[in-house]
UniProtKB/TrEMBL annotation:
Record CDD domains: PseudoU_synth_RluA_like (cd02869)
Family in the record: Belongs to the pseudouridine synthase RluA family.
Official protein name in the record: Pseudouridine synthase
Summary of the function given for this chain in its UniProt record: Responsible for synthesis of pseudouridine from uracil.
Ranges that cross the membrane: none
UniProt organism field: Alkaliphilus flagellatus
Taxonomic superkingdom: Bacteria
Start and end residues of each Pseudouridine synthase RsuA/RluA-like domain: 94-245
Length: 305
């Protein structure tokens, strides 16, 4: 697969292979390149798919060696640019991975209309001369730090969201929890349920969605434990709910535990690591985000207690 990238459009060029011979163009785009039905409909309206330089409809047959070119016009960004600290942990033509600091929300809401990661990303891209719509692939709570994925185009957003939904993206976190966990590693399988439509809190309940969390102990302290946590499913508040369920709520988690203001002013959770396949090239990508200052300070406090 070959890429050309411009400010206003994104071009993918794919050379059909033996396995594609005799298939309809739509089959190749969906089966080989993972284009969504929604994006295909958009490309159809703009007549943006070509075989060997000529516009073709989706029912046309593809032959081995045909050059398929897809031109994706990019939508404009609508977030107000703001100069906010913005640590890029990884970037390519399709993605930006941000090492989000605690205390900042992902995108504007009624209670946080500005000073968000979306505003910071807008400033960052504007200064690079890139005009694209900002699409978040994952979410992090305001007080959770770590890796946040931004897609620069609809194609990469769909492919990565699909990987996320199918639990093909490996996610690891650092968590500091209350109490000493004696087992060196463990696995929590407990369904997570939303108590009501207007509640942000989740509980373990048999009516909930299947949820699996694995953990291993990194360090033990007098009354706390530092863990590496791996998510095998991606439920809202999964780590916070599961750790509270086994009696080891996150330090500083006022929703599922209690206030630990003398130690830290937020839940001690950091999205440390992501593994995924780059949406366009399918190459393996591994990214790790350094701990923020407040978690380094927390670790030092616990070690010295």
């Amino acid at each position: 697969m070959i890429l050309e990238s411009k400010q206003k459009e994104d071009i993918i060029i794919y050379d059909a292979e033996y396995e594609d011979d005799g298939k309809e163009l739509k089959q190749v785009l969906k089966g080989r390149l993972d284009f969504s039905s929604r994006l295909l409909s958009k490309l159809k309206r703009s007549k943006s798919v070509f075989i060997n330089g000529e516009y073709n409809k989706y029912h046309e047959t593809v032959k081995d060696g045909d050059e398929i070119k897809i031109v994706m016009d990019e939508e404009s960004n609508h977030f107000i640019p703001q100069d906010i600290p913005f640590e890029v942990a990884y970037e390519d033509v399709d993605l930006i991975l941000v090492n989000k600091q605690p205390g900042i929300v992902t995108h504007p809401t009624k209670s946080h209309p500005d000073n968000t990661i979306a505003n910071a990303a807008s400033w960052y891209l504007m200064n690079k001369g890139v005009n694209c719509k900002i699409r978040f692939v994952n979410r992090l709570d305001m007080d959770t730090s770590g890796l946040l994925v931004i897609a620069k185009n609809a194609y990469s957003h769909h492919v990565l969201s699909q990987q996320m939904q199918e639990d093909k993206i490996e996610k690891k976190y650092i968590a500091f929890v209350r109490g000493v966990i004696r087992e060196d590693k463990g696995r929590i399988e407990a369904p997570i349920h939303r108590t009501s439509a207007d509640s942000i809190k989740r509980i373990v309940d048999e009516n909930g969605q299947d949820s699996i969390t694995e953990f291993k102990v990194l360090e033990r302290y007098k009354n706390a434990t530092m863990l590496e946590v791996k998510l095998l499913t991606g439920r809202t508040h999964q780590i916070r709910v599961h750790m509270e369920h086994i009696g080891h709520a996150l330090i500083g988690d006022t929703l599922y535990g209690k206030d630990d203001g003398e130690l830290i002013g937020r839940q001690a959770l950091h999205a440390k690591y992501l593994y995924f396949l780059q949406p366009r090239y399918r190459k393996e990508v591994e990214v790790e985000a350094s701990l923020p200052e407040d978690l380094i300070e927390l670790r030092n406090k616990l070690q010295n207690m």
